[in-house]
Structure formats: structure tokens, C-alpha cells
Design brief:
Layout: E1 18-21, H1 27-36, E2 43-46, H2 48-51, H3 56-64, E3 68-75, H4 79-92, E4 96-99, H5 103-113, E5 119-122, H6 131-136, H7 153-166, E6 171-173, H8 178-185, E7 190-193, H9 212-217, E8 222-225, H10 227-230, H11 235-252
Parallel strand pairs: 1-2, 1-8, 2-3, 3-4, 4-5, 5-6, 6-7, 7-8
Helix pairs in contact: 4-5
Length: about 260
């Protein structure tokens, strides 16, 4: 099974594939988490909650530590706003950036990044959404009053992902069964898996979750882990266990 990272094995070992979600409300808490994981974790996700508390200087601080930054804002706005926002993220040195929306959103993001190295990741379906939500919105069937465009959730998700990739997205956010489906369908693109839960952990609001080993074996390039590390009594030990599980799964995965 080929993956987007096959040609970069020297820089994408087990530890480099772990992205820790800094899902905390304050800059001080974020720094405490980064300091606690120093030497084990090199990639961090900044989501909407923390983004409201940090600034450009914090991102530069992270880069100075040798860390990579995944800005997870799921941008979805008018084309010009997306283009300018992505250009600004590129200037800040962000490594990954998430967007949602239509093909025009993707095109605007690609135009905004220009020749910059930031990877544009499209979110076809939030990990907390299920078929019932899409049925309520009239996107998938069954519906007794009219015929939706898509008969089932998988059809909608694959169409959305294909549109994003066709218009320039560098990769996709994929949870649950979509990790393997996207890897098989889009072998040259990055697959980032959120909602990762080690065995025995609560999946919380996520409708689809995988263990680290399952995600890696299904073809994920990067795993996003939040609460299992953030809320652990010993964050370093929790991160080490996940890195070890990733490493074992990589060794058993073909062509990695």
C-alpha cells in the first residue's frame, strides 16, 4: 500500500507522525503542555479555542523550538477572505492548515499559499458528524419527502474529498473507515487522522475513532491526539506509549 510519505521516511518516523492537539484555553497551558512533551513530540495542532488566545509570536516560539504547527481552523469563507487568510498563515510559517467549503474554497486557499510550503488539508466530514446529521440537512437519504443527491453518507464524503483533491488540496482529514478509503482512492495525498483514541479510552463526541495502530495500518500519515495526552496524569508517558504503538504499526505496514 503506497502512502504520501513513502519518499520521506528519514523525516517521518513514528514520533514525527504524532500531532498533539493543544486543546487548551490559555497560552500558559499550551506552553506547559509543550514543555512537558519536549523531546518526544515535535508537531502540535492549534485549534479554534487556543487560536483566540495566541498570536504570531507564539507560533514563532514553537518554530524556534523546532516544532511544526498545524493550524486547525477549518476555514470556510468568501474566496478573497480565504486567499488572504491562507497567505497570512503561510507567512507565519504554519505547516498544515485545514479548510472546509466548496471547490472554490480550495482554489482560493491554493492561490493564497502560492509557492509556500504550507499543506492545505480539506475536511470532507467532521469526526463528530454522522449519517443522521446529514439526513437532517437533506444531503443524504433516505428521506420520505424528496430524493437527496446522495443515497448514503459514504457517497457524500467521497464526492467531497474528490472535489477537494481535484482542485488542489494537499491532503484530507479522515476519521474511522475513511482513512483506508481515502488512502486507497488518493495514494499521493496526505491523510491526517483525528479522533485517535488508544484502546480503552472514551471516544467522547466523535462518531468515528481509531486506535493509533488501526489508523497507521489503514494508511494514515499523521495522527492527531488530544485528550488522551492532554488529560493524562503523565503526559510524557502517554505520548511515549502512542509513539511506540505507531512505531510497531509502521513496522507491520507494507511500503512504509
Amino acid at each position: 500500500m503506497s502512502t504520501a510519505l513513502t519518499d520521506n521516511q528519514s523525516t517521518t518516523g513514528a514520533a514525527q507522525r504524532l500531532i498533539v492537539a493543544l486543546d487548551v484555553p490559555t497560552l500558559e497551558e499550551a506552553r506547559q503542555c509543550v514543555q512537558a512533551l519536549e523531546g518526544i513530540v515535535w508537531f502540535y495542532k492549534i485549534g479554534l479555542e487556543l487560536f483566540q488566545a495566541v498570536n504570531h509570536e507564539f507560533i514563532q516560539e514553537m518554530k524556534a523550538r523546532g516544532c511544526r504547527v498545524f493550524l486547525d481552523l477549518k476555514m470556510n469563507d468568501v474566496d478573497e477572505t480565504i486567499r488572504r487568510a491562507v497567505r497570512r498563515a503561510t507567512e507565519m510559517g504554519v505547516d498544515f492548515l485545514t479548510i472546509q467549503g466548496s471547490r472554490r474554497t480550495v482554489q482560493a486557499a491554493v492561490a493564497g499559499k502560492g509557492e509556500g510550503p504550507v499543506k492545505i488539508l480539506f475536511v470532507p466530514l467532521l469526526s463528530s458528524w454522522d449519517a443522521q446529521i446529514l439526513q437532517e440537512w437533506g444531503l443524504v437519504g433516505p428521506n420520505p419527502r424528496y430524493t437527496p443527491r446522495f443515497s448514503q453518507i459514504d457517497d457524500y464524503v467521497m464526492w467531497h474529498a474528490h472535489e477537494a483533491v481535484a482542485h488542489g488540496a494537499d491532503g484530507l482529514i479522515a476519521s474511522g473507515p475513511y482513512v483506508r478509503q481515502f488512502r486507497d482512492r488518493f495514494p499521493g495525498h496526505l491523510i491526517v487522522a483525528p479522533a485517535i483514541r488508544p484502546a480503552g479510552h472514551d471516544s467522547h463526541e466523535h462518531a468515528r475513532s481509531l486506535t493509533p495502530a488501526q489508523a497507521i495500518r489503514n494508511g494514515a500519515d499523521y495522527l492527531v491526539v488530544g485528550r488522551p495526552i492532554r488529560d493524562a496524569d503523565d503526559r510524557r508517558a502517554a505520548a511515549r506509549r502512542i509513539v511506540h504503538e505507531i512505531d510497531e504499526a509502521l513496522r507491520s505496514r507494507p511500503n512504509t
